[in-house]
Every structure is written in C-alpha cells, then in structure tokens.
Write a structure and sequence with these properties.
22-stranded antiparallel barrel, Plug_dom_sf, TonB-dependent receptor, signal, 5-stranded mixed β-sheet, Maltoporin, Chain A, transport, mainly beta
Length: 761
Amino acid sequence: MKNYFSLITRAPVRVALSAALGVFLSGNLMAQTIDEVIVTSQKKATGISVQDVGVAITALDSNKISDSFSVDLRDLARFAPNAELDTSATFVGYPNFYIRGIGVNGSTRTADPAVGIFLNGVYLGYSPASLLDTFDLEVVEVLRGPQGTLLGRNVTGGAINARTKRPGDEFKVEGKLTIGDYNQTDVMVGVDIPLSSTSSFRISVLSQNRDGYWEDTNSGTVDTSIYAPGYPTTELLVSDDNPNGIAFEDAVPNATGTKSDINTQTIRATLVTALSDATDLTVIGEYYTSKNGSANSKNITHTAVPKLAQTRYGFTRSNGDYDIDHNLHGQSDVELWSLTGELTHDLDHGVVTALASRRELVDFNTTTDFDGTPFTLFHFPDNKENQEQDSFELRYASTFSDKFDFTLGYYFFDQSYYVGERRQILQTVNQAGVTEIDHDISAFFGQLTYNFSDEVSVVAGLRRTSEEKAVKFSPPGSCELDFSSCTTVIQKDGEFENTTPHLALNYKPDEDRLFYLSYTEGFKSGAFNQRAQTAAFIGPADEEKVSSVELGMKSVVNDGKLMLNAALFMVDYEDIQVNVNEDIDITLPDGSVETASGQVLKNAAKAEISGLELEVVSYLTDNLRVNGSFGYVDAEYEEFQGIPNASDLKFARVPEYTYNLGVSYEVPVKTGLVTFRGDYSYKDDYFTDLNNDPEIMQDGFGLVDLSVSYDNDDKGYRVSLYGRNVTDEDYFEFAANVGAIDTVVWGGAPQRFGLEVAFGL
C-alpha cells in the first residue's frame, strides 16, 4: 500500500524546486561538453563512439541511467524515439517491445520477439524473465531498425544491447539505497577488488522490495437481478471488510492484497584477467531470484458488446483507479543463472574474440487472474516453465589497414524450453497442456568498411542463417494437472534459412558530422502456433521479412555543446505472422475428410512503414542542459487476409508520434553541486489490439518526472529526492479483448516519490 513517505518528501521537493527560481549562480562551473558514449554492438576490434556509427542508436551510459532513476529497460524508452519498451502485462517481466512499429503483441511463447535483447553480447532467446534491470549497467544501446547482419535473427524492429560494469584496477566500493512510496526499499552494492597487476574482480548485489501499486479490495458490486446463483454454484457472500463487496467460497485464501509487488535479489560476479600481453579473459556469472506478485488485470465494461462479467453477473468493478477485484492470488516466481566467458586475443593484424555463454531459467512459475474479476472467467493457475540456452560466437576483427577494416564471424545458438500451462475458463475443470521446443541456429557473418577517403566510406555486410525448430505440443485438456502424462502429443518440425545483407554509404566532412544512407534486411524466425488444438493448425508459419532504407545525420557541434541526430526511414514489412481463423479440411484415419475451424498462425499481412526521428542534447549555458527526442511512425497495412480495406487498420501498440523533453540545471554551492531535473514524455493515442477496438484504445498521455540532487564530490556521496509520474496520470500498459468472455486492462505505474542516497569510496 502507498505509505506516508510521500507526505514527507513532497513538501521538500516543492520547496526545493521553488527555491531554484530564486537561486543565483554562485561560483563557476567548468565548461560543459557532451559526453562521448562508446558502443560495442558493431563488433569491431575496439568500441567506437556512437556518433561515428551510421546506424540510429540511442546510447545511455551509467550516469544517464542513474540520473533518470530508471529501474528497468521500460524506463529507458522515453529517451529513444519510436521505441515502445512495454511488457505484455499478462505475465510479469515478459517484454513486448516495439521499435519503429515492429514488435509482438502478446505472450505466446512460440512467437519470437521482433526486438532482440542482448546482455554482454549474448542474445536472450526466451522472452520470459528477459526484462533487464538497469542495475550495474555500464551502457545500454537502443538500436533502431533491422540489425540482421551483425546481430542476426529477431531484430527486425531493432535491438537492445546492454553491457554490465567491469572491475577497475583500484579498490572501490559504490552503493545505493532507495526508499520510497509503497514501502519501497532497494539496496545496491558494488565492489571492485584488484587481485594482482593483471587481474581484477567485481562483485555486485541488488535487493529490491516494494508493495504492489494496486490494491486487491474485491470491492466491486453485483446486480443481484442479473446475477445467476447457479453459475457458478457458489453463493454470493458479503465480506465483513467490504460490506458492499463480494467474495466466493471457492476463492483462493488471501486473494485480497497488493498486486505487482516486487521482491528480487541479484548477485553478479565479474573477473577480468590478462592471460598474457595479448590475451584477455572476462568471466561473468549471475544469479537472479524473485518472488513477485502477479499482473494487475482490471475488468472494464465494454459498452458496445457487454461481456459475461456484466451480462451473467451484473458486475461493476471497483471505483478506485488502483483498486482491482480478483479471486485468485497471483504470483510470479523466477530463478535463473548465467555464465558468460569472453576471450580476446590481439594479433598483429587484428583481434580474435570468442564469446561463450550458458543461461538457464530454472523456474518461471506464474499464477494469473487474467479476467480481473472476482469470478473464474479466465485464469492461469500455477503455470510451470523452464528454459536453457547455450551460445557461442567466434569472430575476427581486422586492424592492419587504415584503408579498410572487416569483421568475420561464426555464431551458434541452441535452446530448449518447456511450458506447462493450466487454464481455467468459465468455471470449467482446470485444463493442462504442454509445449516443448528444441531450437538450433548457426550463422556465418561478415561486414567490411572501405574508406575511399577521409570523408567517404562504404559499409557492406552479409549474414547467412540456418535454423531448426522441433515442437512437441499437447493442447490444454490433454494432460494431467501435474503435467505427468498427456493423451495427445503433436510433433512438428521446421527448417528455416535466410540471408540478410547490409549496405551503407557514409560521408563524414569533418570530425563533428556524419551523414549516411543505408539499406538493411532482417528477418524474424518462422514460428509454430501454441494456441492450436490439432496438428492441422500448428503450422509452422514462415519467417517475417523486413527491408529498410535509412537516411541519417549525426553531429556534435558548437564546441561540443550541441548534439543533433536525425533519421528518416522507409520499411517494407512482409509475411507478417498473424493468428487468423480458418476452416481446414482434415483427413481422418478412415480416409474421410472433416472440416474444422480454428486459429491458424499464417504469414497473412504486408505493410509499409515510414518515419522520422530526432535527438538533441544542448548545453545552453554551463549550468543549463536541455535534451529531447521526437519520433514519428506512419505504419500502414497493404494487405491483410480477410480484411478488404487493410489500409484502414492501424497497428497495435504503435503511437503515431512520441516525444520527450528534459531539462537539468546545476547550481554550485560551497560544498558541492545541486542539480534540478525535469522530464516530460508524451505518447500519442494508439490502439492496443489488432482489431482496433475503440473501447480499449489508449488516449494520448504525458508523464512528468522531477528530481533534485545534491552531490558532494569531496565526500563521495549524492542525495536525491525524486518523483515519477508526479501528476498521477492514469494510463494502461496493456489491454485485451477476450471474445465474449472479458475485456481487461493493465494499468501503468502511478505517482510515486522516493529518496535515494548513493556513494562511492
């Protein structure tokens, strides 16, 4: 529940921000210039400045991440134009990322993402539990547009490339304590330990604890003239705590309480050692565990087509913006570990890199009250998942010529995952089903940069990918509740091959400016239909394909005080994987043919996407910094199976435009520096579903974040008061229209305030 911390912090925040208007600049600041951010996604022999890469990239270093009080990748979306880094909301920690209008809307496990997530160069192949915390990150790159040559499959929209901090060569302790509304208590500690003149070690630990933003009060009401006591058979009861509310005899104990509460722990160890003058080894081990609450599903009344919650029960949900009504106590328990090793060897003519990783999602166990009502309309009780993956990449990056450089590489990836899913729909018997996937990928890739002169260069790249998928699928209702045995097992496999080129022309008239024109292709893996009921509907669908043309400009001018980046892009988006309802003729064992109706995953759509992106950072004075971004996307279907006027259909979860504006003002004081920051981010309205249901369209909304920080460099600490969504904007992250059963939304985070103390010794 929201505690009284906000009453303590809001007044000081208001006073501090008001006082800023009357503060006269005391003392002098050093001349401010825009920091250079080094990126590694281009896989060259050494990292390079993001401003020297002819690719649309928003690069955020650890200072920017810390100054924005970002908790996970979702919080960074506001700084990257045309990036929608939201979750599916159905399952906690399940990314549904979109970049430039391309993404995946939903949580079907067999549907691969269109925005790839990479951690320390390793692709995270399974969406559950891949929503990265910003804890201990050195830099995050948001790459926009297909990245098929260097990063491979499932990056048709773009990619998130995150790199964790490496240990320094001196002993250092850094930490952070955050307390805030909803009983938030987060603790982070990182320690760098030199082991010898050639080796160093870093250990970092994170603990996060917070109550949920939503209160499960079960205080909705029922119209007894509509409610049918025979469906379900339980009696309508009145709660002592909620005399106007409802509770059922079959409700799970302790169903009331907060939702989306957080309880996570992470430990990461990093060893960097020089094996010789030419050979370096980095080993990173990580362990993560969480026992979090469930998603905050809230039933809404669909006025055009009333659903069962209203027609059968006469239900009206709780009035409070952050009140919900569940009869199933949700959970999301996760345990995972990973081990990554990177070996680099410097030859006279180039650098050889070998990157190997093992990642195991030991448990991803979830219980979800999907329908958001005190009735059993649609539940996922006690689902069980696990996944394991191995990956290996070997590459060579040349250094022997100033005229050209190239990267050649081989990549291998193998994963297997298991999904045991239980569904309970409309008070029916709990049904269990199982999906198992084995997935292998191998690829060869190369990219060459040739410099015609100091000003003009050309980049050419190519990647050849081969992959195999084998699925074993038992539909819901065909398995025992403990998943011990299944009466139906459907087995299918698919093989997919793809070649993705990249070609770019760069013009760099001076050190401060870069202009580029590029053509890039990418693809998203072929996929099976996890919602199939028979073998005829399981697929697979072929790969999605993307071809993108981009014209861009990057510049840092005015003596390093102004950065202006811009990009125009046009995308052909083909063979879009869509679930459509079809009649299929099925040949029975006796030779007869039967027509069955069902949901089929098909390459059923084609679209064109174009847009514009702007990014700016400017020091108007040595004290005053302004940053902003603007994104515009025009996404239009050209074809869509079963829809005559496809161009009238809007993309789901893609606002036409987004923008962000941030201002920071620094005031030197006798003992340090006081910094005032404000940030406003806005999203245009957008539909949340493929059918463009106006009842669950998200109206345009803006979020305001404010903070004031005091830095004492001599003592090595910083104290900050901050507020997120300070105007308490009511919005939702996800919505679903479940046929005749239900209409549900999942709300965004409310207003909250916090106090953060950071130190470095």
